[in-house]
Amino acid sequence: MASEDVVGKTTSESAVSTIVNLAEEAKLAREGVKAPGHAVLSICKSLVAGGVAGGVSRTAVAPLERLKILLQVQNPHSIKYNGTIQGLKYIWKTEGFRGLFKGNGTNCARIIPNSAVKFFSYEQASLGILFLYRQQTGNEEAQLTPLLRLGAGACAGIIAMSATYPMDMVRGRLTVQTEKSPRQYRGIFHALSTVLREEGPRALYRGWLPSVIGVIPYVGLNFSVYESLKDWLIKTRPYGLVEDTELSLTTKLACGAAAGTVGQTVAYPLDVIRRRMQMVGWKDAATVVAGEGRSKAALEYTGMVDAFRKTVRHEGFRALYKGLVPNSVKVVPSIAISFVTYEIVKDILGVEMRISD
């Protein structure tokens, strides 16, 4: 009998506790405060939207991404790829359709979490910077300026790049290798384990510094130009570009394309140096990249400044922009698709906050 009383008391307490919790959540909802579970769900939705945006946009331009990397690291004395059209034709002829998408699986495995972290970090950095800006100015209605958006984008880029850099490093090697390469990495995890075993853990972050320096203007300008253009168009309301308070899909794509073009043009030389530094320590890189004609010294860099110096000295300043044309062709649709896909997926998932809010 006593045990029944205990069970009844426990059940009663549990029911009361549940009612109290529901009442508290209802109160928080009425006051505009989200319950912890709601906040977690919102974060997950935001991460999913960013990941989908990255995967879709990168797969759409995978052939151009691979050609860009091959152009960046090829030997100037043994030219195989002379441009976008010729390069794509050469890959198709020598490696077939699958060659155009070589390394895309690894690329997506890197870009999906990178994109998820990048978009989410930008949202959080924007909220934090906006809060501090309003506190400093004393204006509760103040909005982010293009410069503040640049700062938020830079923070997001650094966080996302650092979190996923080892994947980017092995993706570069997987993309460069061909069927005739002496060393064959069998996949992401085989490449990671091989580099760790033969070159040490520091090798996974080789080229990190120019990557981080490059990502500051690249991601920062992407977000700043995209959002500032959207705001300007909504405020000025040019004929045919704005429907009520929403931009048309075509206009959003154009904003994304402009943002990507500006960002990648500024940061591109650092991307070339990063890619070359990632090849350091790979003893088969000379054969893989350029055949036997490439000197060993050209693959040895003591750091970012040394890599810049040797590249310009041996190949000229133009070498810092190798692969820029296919990269430009790639960036225009890629960034545009990424931003628009992100907003569409967030609308579908019902996430309240959007990057322009």
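Second entry:
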Amino acid sequence: MSPRLHPDLTTADTEYGTVLLDQRDGRYWQLNPSAALIMRILTEGGDRDRAADTLLDAFDVDRDRALRDVDAVLAELTAAGLVVS
């Protein structure tokens, strides 16, 4: 099952990435463009490989780095309670 954003989150895209507002506690989270892209791919049903491939197309990174970034973003969003499985 793909991760999804917690239902109490509100998102807004900005020129610097995406801002998440956690309505449970009023905390804001700023995702840079690469993290925002990863979040969008994963929460729209894409898998780890698709997210990494999209990073490869959008940014100057190698595949190993892209996979590590996908794993790190997902782990941080999950640990913060912003995404659920």
